Amino acid sequence: MSSKAPIWIKSFATAHRLRTITDKGDGTTIIAGRKGHIYEYGNRLAVMFLPSGWAPKKWGNARRACEAAGMSVLQDGDSEGSIAFDPSDPNQAKLAKAVAGCKTIRRVSEAQKEQLRAARALSHVGRPLLGSSDHVEESPLVI
Fold it and tell me: In whole angstroms, what is the distance from residue 97 CA to residue 103 CA?
């Protein structure tokens, strides 16, 4: 793997608000999704489709949609496979994220943060927060 690999995948992740994870064993950086993951493949990126069960129709539909968008199939299994795509093409990038099932990182404005803080403070009214020094006696169990 080249030294540029993490830069490609990390810049794609930053541009599309995705989280990356790095394997401690070999140092490979990927973008994990619910149905697969996105990884570095040469000077392009690739998406690996790995459904949780036997799903040949889902893989066939995903493969045909990706081929129609100009992506190239690298591995074609019965129920799984991988497809290379150009990260600078917005249509291919959107489709790759959908195939892998990647979830974007939520952007929270300052107003939303303040609203969440206020709701959190109200949710603990009349009862101690977890980990606080206030001790609440348990009532005896009545059967």
Answer: 8
Whole-prediction pTM:
0.71
Category of 95 on φ-ψ map: left (φ > 0), alpha (ψ -120 to 50) or beta: alpha
Six token digits for residue 58: 């889902």
Q: CB of 33 within 8 A of CB of 104?
A: no
pLDDT digits (tens, 9 = 90+) for 26-50: 888 999 999 999 999 888 899 999 9
Average pLDDT over all residues of the chain: 84
Q: Which secondary structure element, helix H or strand E, spans residue 95, and what is its range?
A: helix 90-100
Dist CA 11 CA 6 (whole Å): 8
Token representation of residue 97: 């994220």
C-beta of residue 73 within 8 angstroms of C-beta of residue 67: yes
| Domains in the chain, number | 1
Q: Domain range holding 90?
A: 5-100
For 21, phi and psi rounded to 5 degrees?
A: -130, 150
